[in-house]
Design a protein that fits this description.
4-stranded parallel β-sheet, 2 domains, Rossmann fold, alpha/beta, about 15% strand, 5-stranded parallel β-sheet
Length: about 400
Amino acid sequence: MSAIKKLAVLSAALGLLTVSTSGVLAQKKYDTGATDTEIKIGNIMPYSGPASAYGVIAKTEEAYFRKVNAEGGINGRKINFISYDDAYSPPKTVEQARKLVESDEALVVFNPLGTPPNTAIQKYLNTKKVPQLFVATGATKWNDPKNFPWTMGWQPNYQSETQIYAKYVLKNKPDAKIGILYQNDDYGKDYLKGFKDGLGAKAASLIVLEESYEVSEPTIDSHIVKLKASGADVFVNITTPKFAAQAIKKNAELGWKPLHFLNSVSGSIGSVIKPAGFENAQEIISSQYLKDPADAEWKNDAGMKAWNEFLDKYYPEANRADAFVVYGYTVAQTLEHVLKSSGDNLTRENVMKQAASLKDLELGGLLPGVKINTSATDFAPISQMQLVKFKGETWERFGEILSGDAGG
């Protein structure tokens, strides 16, 4: 073979080698926080402070990722779950988010909790192009892919939920005198807006008192006294768990028995209703999209059997009456699904792309008929829920699966 031919053959072989090597390399793409062996997931949760009842969500997620790792990880990679306490204080949230992104180099910030805390870090994470994924708050503004393409909600949004309550009032108690208690922040105001939008033109005549409280207040008793004195016969209770339990107790002490709507974020039997007293919570109306672990209806349900088996092995000390444990389990499963779908392309951009491509995803903790759907223009994964009424020691579902019509 001539020297020229040998050179041509060698060049062709090197070319093939280059093509095949780049093919192998093209199969695996990583951003900071992902390697052949590990995926770093960041989380921020109020383990302390006024919203500490939510801390069990991250404890459940940590246990779930231990289960994932024990079973071989996700596509062979182990989850490194890094979770920090922000005490539900936005300045602290900013500090922890910076730590997760700049020091820990997490691939995503997953399920950080609370509307004010997430508001405080939204611009920072979007500027850094770090997914703020499946935030643990139902504020409507998380569904805004045009302006905040790196932020996505998970649970039904607050405005949709209170629109459903408003429609119930208009239909069943058209001459209502409505008193509203709400947390004086973005979370409370979002719920309030949804309720007023649902009442429409009737809002001005039906609402007799709007009372706001600060999250720093030790008790909301004085607000409940004012609401009772207003003559309200419908009570819309827009509070986080600690204050929800206080409100239910104080109503009972005062002998005030309005038609009582409790926002779903405080619907946990274990952390709200039981501490407030079952006898004090009778006939309260709320809404659900997750199965209630305290409901005997799910005793032989395959999804809840799997949940119980998971707790037996990885989180035996969990309070099984606490709906937040079902929440943590189900949102962790959603992230697991997204990361599996991302395959070997673990870039932040692809993780968001997969999160925005969920089609009729059904998970064991969701109520029958509730499915997770997203698209490039819809960052609200869950939009369905069902009304429930508290009877005895459990929530009883009634009516159909409903969809609120508040968009992003």
